[in-house]
Task: structure prediction
Amino acid sequence: MDFHNGSFDGFTYLKFWSYYKNLNVILSNIKSENFKRSSIY
Result:
């Protein structure tokens, strides 16, 4: 990724970063939910 060409500006980076963080939170929530379910049986 080229940060100097202007097409990938700070706003896009912030949007991408927050999306990536949210994705990680959702994935870890799903993993812990699956773990809880599998530990019940």
Notes: The CA atoms of residues 10 and 32 lie 33 Å apart. The helical segments are 10-40. The two ends are 46 Å apart (CA to CA).
